[in-house]
User: Fold these one by one.
Assistant:
Number 1:
Amino acid sequence: MSEQHDILIKELIKLLEGGGAHATLEDALEGIPAEKLGIKPHGLPYSIWQLAEHIRIAQWDMLEFSKDANHQSPKWPDDYWPKEAAPENPGDWDKTIAAIKADRKVFIELLRSGDIYAAIPHGDGQSILREALQVADHNSYHTSEIILLRRLLGIWK
């Protein structure tokens, strides 16, 4: 591949992993007391748990769509958001965080492994590049919401 391609892949990975001028998703999710995960402060529509789980579901869907012609996306919007404000059991939070990280790692490998510009054969014009940008944009948007909720709950740095 060309040097420009390698630079683009490197920058896309930085975008997916977050950081630079902004807090990472890991920063936003780190050290949240379990009793705060299900609170919806000031009448806001989502809790931290719901936002994190939404990130997991949406990122998983974009990853699976990118690599699997037989993937069936969840029903929008109902199946992209958990109905419960808090995790059912303490292990669910850890599983969600681990799944977000694992799926992001697989998506990064997908970026490194092929033609990011080519149309995904089973899509309607999407490419791996487009999906990478969408994952990064989506996760960044909701990361900022998690940080806002943490500020409102008095549990941000």
Note: The radius of gyration is 16 Å.
Number 2:
Amino acid sequence: MDDKFKIPQLLLRYALGITFLTPVSDRLGLLGAAGTGNIEWGNWQNFIDYTTTLMPVFDRPIVNILGGIATIAELFIGIFLIIGFKTKWSARAASLLTLTFIVFMTLSVGIQKPVNYGVFTASAASLLLSFIPNYKWSLDNLLAEK
């Protein structure tokens, strides 16, 4: 039987992986300084300042820890999706993480920000990816063959 998901799952994995890695690169200052080009934060401090507005119920030290956890999660999710490692679980984690972003963003700054940033799309696309039966051209597929 022909697998019609070969190319779509690959493109979806890459798109979502890049979607997770780009903001990590931004908040670590790898894409440039704040205020230049399309740079949202440009450094960790600006990222934590913004994250504090999204989580007003938490003290800044807690927000710093939660921001670090989210950044590490995004880094691993992005890499795992691109290489296709533990893809089903990475996609589920991506969907849950973005759903968490949706809730905090909506409660603190309104529904328009998560819509503008495509967080709903990323969450739904991640969930959809987790239901694809086979991840051709992935590390998962390569390891399953051995």
Note: The longest helix spans residues 60-83.
